[in-house]
Design brief:
single chain, 176 residues, alpha/beta, Rossmann fold, 6-stranded mixed sheet, two-stranded antiparallel ribbon
Amino acid sequence: MTHQELAERIRSVAYLEGDFTLRSGKKSTFYVDKYLFETQPDILAELGRLFAGKASARTTLIAGAELGGVALAAAASMAAGKPFAIIRNAKKDYGTSKMYEGKISKGDVVLLVEDIATTGGQVLEAAKTITEAGATVEKIVAVVDRGQGAGQNIRAAGFAFDSLFNAADLRLPARS
């Protein structure tokens, strides 16, 4: 699938127009529903392949924050042949009471995958959990950068950032 074909496929299943409130609290006239595109096997497989291509020879682990990053991290893990970890949004109060599932070891070099980046708040929390476990976040890569500050905020926090698409790649052409 080409980059353009993937963008069109994501747009066809997950691009919505209307009045939306984003996780960041910002208002938007469009919304890319990550669960609509992440649950399509052809899209998920292609995203996994693209994320795997962002891993370097140093990458030892792929991670994604719950809930939207889990399927992406799993797909990237399978495509790259590297283990993955799930970063929790909140510490569980039973069992191991960890902020992550899977194994994060001191010295791991982590590719952190994200679904939709608006301000970068959630993925920065995930990056903090990873670094507190003794690993290094090599790069944060989102499926879509909405262009509303995530890239700047992530870079300002000291992390490399990239995205597979930006909002313009998925927006519908203007109607005549």
